[in-house]
Amino acid sequence: MRQIIYTSITTNPSGHADDDAVAITRQALLRNGLDGITGLLYTQDADFLQVIEGPDDSIADLLASLLSDPRHRDLRMLIDRDIEDREFGDWMMLHRERRETVDAFDRRLHGLLLNVSHETAGYFRALVPA
Length: 130
Ligand SMILES: Cc1cc2nc3c(=O)[nH]c(=O)nc-3n(C[C@H](O)[C@H](O)[C@H](O)COP(=O)(O)O)c2cc1C
Known about the structure:
The chain has 130 residues and is of the alpha+beta class. 40% of the residues lie in helices and 28% in strands. The protein is built from four helices and five strands, in the order βαββαββαα. The protein binds flavin mononucleotide. Residues 8, 24, 27-28, 31-32, 41, 48, 50, 52, 62, 65-66, 69, 71-72, 93 line the site of flavin mononucleotide. Residues 1-94 form the BLUF domain.
């Protein structure tokens, strides 16, 4: 199984990554369910931070789609490694819902981060308000 964590920047003229997140999550739920991919999509201002975990073939295909997706740019790979078990649970693509406050989502996220490696948690802490 492969785990990828990357950041990218929205190309939406609004400058808010969140403006495309609902459409992206909807797409993700369809495809990820079929391909065994799980993960998390975090948005903060113009930034995306995404974790994807799943079978090598599925991740390679999704990565090709992500690299050519015009809704974001400057994809920066933070982690790309083999994993034994999923670190982020089995969400098909966890995302902060619009009606959920940042605080409530961050509490959920901090709960999740208790289970991940120190290195992985560090990337989130750099982006997510404490
Ligand atoms: C930040 C970001 C995250 C995305 N995450 C996913 C994802 O987890 N799963 C997914 O199927 N598509 C995701 N997409 C959409 C894919 O890039 C792509 O548009 C979609 O999977 C359809 O792929 P295709 O056009 O190659 O058929 C994401 C797009 C962006 C911009």
